[in-house]
Sequence to fold (512 residues):
Amino acid sequence: MFAPARTASARTEPAHVEPAHAESALDFRAFVARLLADGDVITVDRPVDPHLEVGAVTRRVYETAAPAPLFTSLTSGAPGCRILGAPAGLSGDPSGRYGRLAAHVGLGRDAGAREIVERLVSAMHAEPVPPRVVATGPCKQNVLTGARVDLERFPVPLLHQEDGGRYFGTYGFHVVRTPDGGWTSWSAARTMLRDATSLVGPAMPQQHLGMVREQWLRRGERMPWAMVLGAPPAALAAAGMPLPAGVSEDGYVGALAGAPVEVVRAETNDLLVPANSEIVLEGWVEAEELAPEGPMGEYHGYAFPEGRLQPVFHVEAVTFRDEPILPVCAAGLPPEENHTVWGTMISAAALDVLRRAGLPVDFAWCSYEAATCWIVVSVERAGRGELAMSDDELTGMIAETLFASHAGWLVPKVIVVDDDVDITDVSQVVWALATRHHPQTGTRLYPDVPGIPMVPYLTAAEAEAARGGKSVTNCLLPRGFRGRTASFAASFPAELRQRVLNDWAAYGFPAA
Ligand SMILES: Cc1cc2nc3c(=O)[nH]c(=O)nc-3n(C[C@H](O)[C@H](O)[C@H](O)COP(=O)(O)O)c2cc1C
Ligand SMILES: [Mn+2]
Fold:
């Protein structure tokens, strides 16, 4: 019925990554320096207040596709501490729109969405490159332990006026390990400042942080923990990627960047953390202890009025580079890092799940504009007529394959189109939705499959059960459809199109 499923066992060599690109992927300081040189980071030297002002500037940066701000003179926190806002915001320069994201994954500024996603997928099929343990590194330039731990020495921002607290970790990841030592998990999730020596934040049971915590809970033991801020950008990206359970993200980072990530042992436990990280928090999570967290302006674009009880992260050591840079994501309306990083990483993991199921899938893309609440899947149109299933069955299979995966748990809506649509261009997706989706017959509903409970439109009962509110929307061209696309690309002979492009300036238009 389908092409044979591609097997996971046929491992490929890690990609060749240009040394300059590998350096920015594996070192946050080098990443910032490169973006400064490219004009995609600007230095803000005037005094800026971490209380709302950092958030306001960063939000406006996302919303106007401005360069990322490096705040060097903050009005709270110890002198020398810096903040980088919008570390993976989109750029206003069309040829480098994804430049900040591309610099996370070892690609050049001009890489497009497809190139980035295919790189992420191919790294999933490469042999993992395990981290290299080194004796020390820049993250140990300053070491504070015991009574000297004081999280208030950092400029911890209040990012939106609705937020229930100041967020230290909006662009960092947790490091935890199963009690048997077999699985080390790096995962991005937010943490709110609770007091000078503790944080509080979510650890959903379906996410790997929650799964590892559960194993420690069952033993009744505190879980050793670390959180990394200003991590190697490829490590942050991998920590925001729904790789399967049991996969240690550190080996994926090496495969992605083409070289191992260097790690050092934490001061107070056996966890390993990237050696050149800007800031490392170390400590433990007490079994059963919860405290109020949130609310916070979130990835879907809303802030809800209530917080929740979440696990507490006790900090017993802080290590940091000189003049540390705290990266900050001011979550909310797209595009911010929950869309550009998380959405892109979900796209890659989902594409791999669908291809490995043998489905005739061309590409998968979480439109940033849809705030990681929908994923668009394009299917190979050639040969679709010969499939031994209806289009409705095919769209159902795509949705059900996704909804059974770790990646598909995160995204409630699936939209399926033919591969004549460039799904990375949201205006083409809107055109397909409007002109190809039959409202009566083109939607399948999934009222009972598990899903992320944060989706804004869920009823209280659905959110409580973490089930339902999911769908697939069939935008495949109906069989026997007689329309032909009328456009520059489709309505003219290739020779004429080329001549028009060549003569564009001669017609009197500004050069494209
Ligand atoms: C900037 C950013 C912030 C995120 N914040 C959270 C969060 O607070 N809670 C959460 O469950 N996932 C959050 N995510 C998504 C997870 O990192 C993602 O689902 C990842 O797959 C989790 O790791 P795991 O698959 O190892 O569980 C965030 C992702 C990014 C990029
Ligand atoms: Mn994981």
Notes: The chain has two domains: 19-328, 359-475. DSSP finds 13 helices and 21 strands in the chain. Residues 347 and 489 are 26 Å apart (CA to CA). Residues 337-356 form the longest helix (20 residues).
